[in-house]
Design goal:
By secondary structure, this protein is an alpha+beta fold. It contains four helices and seven strands. Helix 1 packs across helix 3. The protein is globular.
């Protein structure tokens, strides 16, 4: 099976290239993207608070609210900026006493289009049988000339 950028199962995902073909420092480009995601997501979705954590070894959580994590994952110059229902012990303990799952999924459904518009430059078209992903520039990125 081919390797591709990781992101949490069931998440809303916007894709971007980290490498623009220049000889830039990829670590600096990554940190700039992280700062941009944090600033833009907090402005668009004020309920988010900064959060420093991980889902597994590859999916970095940048922001969190009562329902969702917002994070970033990278692989070979491709960044997946994702929004996923929380999956931590405190969330599930709170859900036991006051169910949140339905509200979380409703909130994610409401914000997913705006999230993709905000961060998406590439659109996942499909996958080969070996797991390699095929992308194209998103329509919104083409329309704006970015």
């Amino acid at each position: 099976m081919g390797r591709s950028v990781s992101y949490p199962t069931g998440s809303v995902v916007a894709f971007r290239l980290l490498d623009d073909g220049e000889d830039e420092d990829i670590d600096w480009v990554y940190e700039c993207l992280v700062d941009e995601v944090i600033d833009a997501a907090k402005a668009a979705f004020p309920s988010f608070q900064r959060f420093d954590g991980w889902r597994g070894r590859e999916d970095r959580i940048l922001l969190r609210n009562a329902f969702a994590d917002c994070g970033i994952s990278t692989w070979c110059g491709l960044a997946a900026i994702w929004l996923a229902e929380r999956d931590d012990a405190r969330y599930w303990e709170a859900d036991f006493y006051n169910p949140r799952t339905a509200r979380a999924r409703h909130w994610l459904g409401q914000v997913s289009g705006r999230f993709i518009d905000l961060f998406g430059e590439l659109r996942l078209v499909g996958r080969f049988s070996n797991g390699e992903a095929i992308f194209e520039h998103s329509r919104s990125a083409c329309d704006t000339g970015s």
